[in-house]
Amino acid sequence: MFLAVSSSFAQRDSSNTKKANHYLGVQANQLLRQLFNLSGNTTVVANPYLINYSVNSAKSGWGLNVGIGYTVDQSNQSDANTTNNSQTTNFSFRIGAERKVALAKKWMFSYGFDFLEDKMNTTSTAKSQFQFNSNETDIDLITKDSGFGPRFTLNFFVTPKILIGTEVTYYYKAITTSQNTTNSSTTISINPSTGQQVSNSSSSSTESTQKLKQFHFTAPANIYLTLKF
Question: pLDDT averaged over the chain?
Fold first, then answer.
């Protein structure tokens, strides 16, 4: 649907009049922090939609907006007896209708309504080895949320083709978190009767699920650098 709408908006009529405007934006908080040397600013931006694309009618301002984000974080730590590995993947997607409105020569406002789907998966493994005894714990944590809600943006035209702006969202989310924990261990003991080594192994697994619903407000802390074409 996104490709079909984009293609139809991109077409021009016989008089060569532009029928649609395209906007490609990326989250630029880290870039601006480096450019303006904001070393003392430690604010963490919680907005997961790192890239945004929209196509809007040049006449009415109505169009389609898509946001996407994907991050991977890995951690590996080890010493003589223990090893800890973890990986977190986070995928976020939203799509919705919006309208862009010119407020003044340099300012543009937009409002819209989005549907979203996010998933975060964290896997971690902890291993320990002390002499002949070993233990391993594996944790698989999955968080899924889906929802909808309004979105508002405010953008400033640095040049006719480059914009800088921010957004405010107020999303309803239904969140499901499931966790699966597996523990296995092996111990070596001496049989007092025979004096031989005896290996004892055991394993256990637990599962849990938690569901919650929330209205999540995102303040205008994230900055987008957008190219208009």
Answer: 87
Greater confidence (172 vs 28) lies with 172
- Please state, in angstroms and rounded to a whole number, the distance separating the CA atoms of residues 170 and 24: 22
* Pairing between β-strand 62-78 and β-strand 82-102 as defined by DSSP bridges: antiparallel
Question: Is the CB of residue 82 less than 8 Å from the CB of residue 130?
Answer: no
Phi and psi angles of residue 17, each rounded to the nearest 5 degrees, phi first: -85, 135
First to last CA, the chain: 21
Residue 6 has pLDDT above 80, yes or no: no
- The domain of 100 spans 2-228
Determine how many CB atoms are found less than 10 A away from the CB of residue 207: 10
Angstrom distance (rounded) from CA 173 to CA 92 = 13
Percent of the chain clearing pLDDT 90 (strictly above): 68
Give the C-alpha separation, 165 to 25, whole Å: 9
How far CA 157 is from CA of 22, 77, 108, 115, 132, in Å, comes to 14, 46, 8, 27, 67
Element (H, E) at 10: helix 2-10
d(CA 188, CA 193): 15
- Encoded amino acid at 105, one letter: K
CA separation, residue 98 to residues 10, 59, 79, 107 (Å): 17, 14, 53, 17
Tally of domains in the chain:
1
pTM, two decimal places:
0.81
